[in-house]
Amino acid sequence: MSDAFHQRLHHVASDALSADTAQTSGMRRVEAISGSTVGSRNLWMGQTHVAASTNSGNHHHGASETAIYVVSGTPSFVFLDEEHGEIRVDTKPGDYIYVPPWVPHREENPDPENEAVVVISRTTQDAIVVNVPDLKWVGPVAVGTKDPEES
Length: 151
Fold this sequence. Notes:
Helix content is 3%, strand content 36%. With 151 residues, the chain is mainly beta. It has a five-stranded antiparallel β-sheet. It has a four-stranded antiparallel β-sheet with strand order 3-9-6-7, with no helix packed on it. Strands 4-11 form a two-stranded antiparallel ribbon. The N and C termini lie far apart (39 Å). It holds the Pfam family Cupin_2. It comes from Actinoplanes couchii.
């Protein structure tokens, strides 16, 4: 049946995650929930893996809000504060991070022995990843501002 009350649930097993998604150097993203995996329209969800003693490249996620849940490891999330310079947010398993739209950031895994794994959820169905040379703002500077490409 195709009405809204008779939809089926989708199970995505951990061994079925797809690496066919946007990538950033120093990390590996895999998607679980997306339009291509389950037909979602407004949601993207997956994992990011950062190897021991590795930093990702600088990037942002365009108009997408991103929620991050730390599963394992002690990753740090780095962004630029115009007044104070680079800010590091150190995390541990069970912690959450919110990344507003357009905020350039990077993930760092300072642990010399263990991989860091996080679960990511985004408000856009596409896994928007814009790799950038540094942490300076290149898009709108506040949550809720329009995507310049929509003007």
